[in-house]
Amino acid sequence: MRKKIISLTMALVLGLSLTACGDDSGSKDSTSGGKSNATSDQGSSSTVANKDKPLVWFNRQPSNSSTGELDQTALNFNKDTYYVGFDANQGAELQGTMVKDYIEKNIDKIDRNGDGVIGYVLAIGDIGHNDSIARTRGVRKALGTGVEKDGDVNSDPVGTNTDGSSKAVQDGSLEIGGKTYKVRELASQEMKNSAGATWDAATAGNAIGTWSSSFGKEIDVVVSNNDGMGMSMFNAWSKEQKVPTFGYDANNDAVAAIADGYGGTISQHADVQAYLTLRVLRNALDGVDIDTGIGTKDDAGNVLSEDVYVYKEDERSYYALNVAVTADNYNDFTDSTKVYEPVSSQLDAGAHASKKVWLNIYNASDNFLSSTYQPLLQNYDDLLNLEVEYIGGDGQTESNITNRLGNPGQYDAFAINMVKTDNAASYTALLNQ
Ligand code: BGC
User: Fold this and answer.
1) Does residue 200 line the site of ligand 1, with CB under 6 A?
2) Ligand 1 atom showing the smallest separation from residue 248 Cα
3) What are the 10-residue block averages of pLDDT along the chain, 433 residues in total?
4) Ligand 1: does its nearest atom lie under 6 Å from the Cβ of 135?
5) Cβ contacts of 313 within 8 Å, gap of 6 or more
6) Can you give the CATH number for the domain in which 198 is found?
7) How many domains does the chain contain in total?
8) CB 368 less than 6 A from any atom of ligand 1
9) Same-domain pairing of 78 and 221
10) Which residue segment(s) compose the domain that 301 sits in?
11) Model's pTM, two decimal places?
């Protein structure tokens, strides 16, 4: 395993230096592999047409970024196409409840300036991403700050709302210990950098700087759509100020920070998702029932229980279930890159021959994907006898990634993490050629 990572890293360094001149990514720890032939010597042995090869979308579900409607064409690209993600609504509800519970338990010290208003700020990941939208709604629902728009809670950013005049939210109220407190979303913003990358941690760090310098005393709680942005705000301001900060993903650094006052996070069971992402490809390549090693034990004994995932046939989607991680249980979540024990048995190489998979991470600088998801994938690829080529994108343009899918014929299967959820066709077009 270790040897493989080292040689992969060397290949990546090589690939990077070869492409350095023409590459605009500039992202700090890009795992960009450059041209695929840097690591692929023999190519795929199959004679299957690219359009018929197994395909899994993961982390960003093909969907309309304005309406959220699923892109059924992409999800049904061929008979071996699936999406793997997590249950966004269940997780969002958990995050909202976690924040509310914390406020209730710590009411004696939460209102820092004693004005009877519990003020929070919210870092939004990507206004066109269903998971981000769900998390914004979850927090607003739990705190009573949501207002209705088109039959659901409005998820628009408010900008600054220190005077409570925004139409996208309302002041909520919480009844705690016989007293009524007002809850106000003081500010929220999509954390997108000038180059277009969303869920951007550095942008969130800057935002908390701006917010705290103009109304810092009113901020009692910091909430973020993910830990990357949450930790950036925590490190820049709230840790020092002892303002509880809540994120999502249960990345290692965020879980460790709970000991230093980070309020909590949500595990989206990335250990189950990373397994499912590669497992559905393995099953399709083996030509076995898709449930093998998932709901049904495989020949090595791997199986998942129903409390960690759901499969929705009509959406062709597997969703891992979320768990709240707080001061009460964080010791159980200190290593987010550990394989999930019930699916950690090695497949036999004779019965499950090695296959080549092309897989991309949409943004090599994304904290969750680079520090949690990809290390997990790298642990599972060995167990499942898959030789995966990891391509790291810049998080900005689809072409930065699709340019590196120049020779799909070299691979047996594909795992795709899009930049924008409605751009599935830019990948499938390459497989249709
Ligand atoms: C994660 C975020 C990540 C995003 C990327 C989400 O599921 O929670 O941390 O930035 O995926 O698409």
Assistant:
1) no
2) 8
3) 43 41 35 38 72 98 96 98 97 98 97 95 97 98 97 97 98 95 98 97 98 98 98 98 98 98 98 98 98 98 97 98 98 97 98 98 97 98 98 96 96 98 97 94
4) no
5) none
6) 3.40.50.2300
7) 2
8) yes
9) no
10) 8-86+269-432
11) 0.89
